[in-house]
Amino acid sequence: MNQSEQLSNTANDQLHDLTSPLLQQVIDAWIELKTQQPLVHIMTNTVASNYVANILLAAGASPAMIDNPFEAESFASIASAINLNLGTPTSEQMQAMQIAAQTAQNLGKIWVLDPVGYGAVLKWRSDMADLLLQYQPTVIRGNASEISALAGNQIQAKGVDSTVSSESIYLQAQPLFEHTECIAISGESDFILSKELNAVIQINGGSYLQPKITASGCALGALTAAYCSVSSTITAGTMAAHIHFAIAGKKAYARANTAGSFNVAFLDEIYSLNEEDFRQYSDFCILPL
Amino acid sequence: MNQSEQLSNTANDQLHDLTSPLLQQVIDAWIELKTQQPLVHIMTNTVASNYVANILLAAGASPAMIDNPFEAESFASIASAINLNLGTPTSEQMQAMQIAAQTAQNLGKIWVLDPVGYGAVLKWRSDMADLLLQYQPTVIRGNASEISALAGNQIQAKGVDSTVSSESIYLQAQPLFEHTECIAISGESDFILSKELNAVIQINGGSYLQPKITASGCALGALTAAYCSVSSTITAGTMAAHIHFAIAGKKAYARANTAGSFNVAFLDEIYSLNEEDFRQYSDFCILPL
Amino acid sequence: MNQSEQLSNTANDQLHDLTSPLLQQVIDAWIELKTQQPLVHIMTNTVASNYVANILLAAGASPAMIDNPFEAESFASIASAINLNLGTPTSEQMQAMQIAAQTAQNLGKIWVLDPVGYGAVLKWRSDMADLLLQYQPTVIRGNASEISALAGNQIQAKGVDSTVSSESIYLQAQPLFEHTECIAISGESDFILSKELNAVIQINGGSYLQPKITASGCALGALTAAYCSVSSTITAGTMAAHIHFAIAGKKAYARANTAGSFNVAFLDEIYSLNEEDFRQYSDFCILPL
């Protein structure tokens, strides 16, 4: 074992020791979500809006879709967290997003950026995502194609779906730490890059049916905003949202393995999840960056 | 017993005598809804639109979401009823709403206003709601926070969710009779203020899961419009929509007590409700104002 | 038997001989859809967007709702097929649709027009539908009222629902062959007019509950676009989408006969359909035009 391997092992051990405390923070965040029912200001796409609202209500948060430029500042000012999703932008929504992001930064509010479809083909939204980075999103959440492209890599997505795996690109995402504390990349496993811990957390679970239900990524972004507004750290809040989804997806699939029934079961499991589930089914590991 | 108590008792007795005839009017309205399948012109928010359409189809109405200013007048002119919902307004929708409300008033059409999120924080839509009042909505429907604020009280909502109970504010809503014949306040119990009867009807039922499903209030507003276009009186139509919801919610919860399954069961029950259910499960009382 | 009857019988026999090869083409299209997962560029209405995306994902396609004028050209250029649906147009969507249709025509891409609500009452969208015809949609899909009106007949729809049967109007639709190769009219039975075969294909199946679920026509239009991008002929692709729906509707109804449960079961059946189902349950006949 050479010196570099020894250092790495020490880092691994230290991170491994974080597993229990992080799980406790995740559970605490879940309890706080149920208790505080934080108001989440959401600007999302027309495909996702109903689903996102139902997921947040089921989880215990209080979602409100306010996406016009005339109310963006006043509503962002009273919300506990903000989620901006670039799925189907309109000119008015674009104005509203910039106002909300600026308000969030000015007031030190939690806000989550979801750069849906980021890449060369969808330039209008991609330019807006670049612009929104200057308002320092608390968390950036997307699929592997989006995050990789946002971090400056040349990548070709398939529409709004990813063509690469989360595992293969998470190291490419680190330049985004210039703009954010936390980067969440969803996929077969989810990878959460934490500036605070200088580590990446790999979260397993979910179901291969999840990408067959539209807008689950969008809902995850909004839930991340909700959790981060009540958690002790941004890392724990982001983890809590992703673990909540991973366990609900796994349990839903055990009950229902076709698209329609899975969709219903997933919302049931998001609603029903309890502390015991978190302790029993959380499946994550922490790796050094 | 003093004279004032005697008067009140007399009023109570007279109102109590209305229970059976009102229930019959409600059932008649339900039969007419199934028979006439009234065309309802709906402008609603992006969160609610799919759900509202499915609820109305299940109940027997024919919904059509037409929300641009270029077709608002011609479509309002042929619709049986109109429902304007301020959930996620755009500039074009705002124009369209004003045109539709004006058309409704000019042609003496049933129209229902749902002032989602009314209050100081969401000024743009609140100004529009104030403006729309001049076109004399047939029914105003909202949660307790919205109705109280619309009636001129200082109240703080939590986003688009209410922070006060329907029971505690219904007396505050009476100034709205200047603009409308009927005010429906949804909550744990619903309260319908009828100018015609000079009474308030309290409707019990539903499920505590209902607020966990987004857009059920929005769907209730649209269904109220549908019912009022076929009922003998506005009071009976508004009651019919609320009782239809209350029974369906109660029956759905008996079958399914988690968010996703409840959502599906609720649509099933809206569809399946029959005359027997109305007679068996209607739970309302009439109180003097 | 006179000469004319003999000719007609010969035509009937020749068309009847097409039944087996057409079914094989339909099955081949279904296999290709699962394999290629074509990217479908969709501009649709706010009522339908979530449902349409879920149906396409369940069937195996990759939907993306991109409906702003700033990204319409670049995205249409990379998509395998395009679906333009006039359900709830906005000014920006209208611009985007024209750009996408023009791009489709320039690049020889499959594109499907769904003229929701076409008729005298909804003039703004109807003018746009007329305009879009010049870009030669590959397929025009609608209900009987819409298709009849688009073909120049005086007809009165009820909002966005049809007031006439598909069977009664399909002969009126033939003038649309000036603009398209294929016309699909949905209803109790679906009728697909094929310029290639100079025939109409009648497809049976589905369920009377289908019109009780909003946006199933919209989803069928988008699925038609998906199928046509992978099928050997436009006729086979259009048939495949309609047969996929007809079988899924029939099987779903056998499991669930109320609106909410049917909705879930239908998505399940869209997802689960297999080659055996196509061979067992396809129910169509081919008639001369």
From TrEMBL, chains A, B, C:
CDD domains linked: THZ_kinase
E.C. number: 2.7.1.50
SUPFAM superfamilies listed in its UniProt record: Ribokinase-like
List of residues binding ATP: 141, 186
Known pathway: Cofactor biosynthesis; thiamine diphosphate biosynthesis; 4-methyl-5-(2-phosphoethyl)-thiazole from 5-(2-hydroxyethyl)-4-methylthiazole: step 1/1
Coiled coil: none
Sequence positions that bind substrate: 65, 215
GO molecular function, one term: magnesium ion binding
InterPro entries hit by this protein: Hyethyz_kinase (IPR000417), Ribokinase-like (IPR029056)
GO BP terms in the entry: thiamine biosynthetic process; thiamine diphosphate biosynthetic process
Keyword terms of this UniProt record: ATP-binding, Kinase, Magnesium, Metal-binding, Nucleotide-binding, Thiamine biosynthesis, Transferase
Keyword Magnesium: yes
Record-linked Gene3D superfamilies: 3.40.1190.20
Reactions it catalyzes: 5-(2-hydroxyethyl)-4-methylthiazole + ATP = 4-methyl-5-(2-phosphooxyethyl)-thiazole + ADP + H(+)
CC cofactor: Mg(2+)
Family from the record: Belongs to the Thz kinase family.
Its biological purpose: Catalyzes the phosphorylation of the hydroxyl group of 4-methyl-5-beta-hydroxyethylthiazole (THZ).
Protein name per the record: Hydroxyethylthiazole kinase
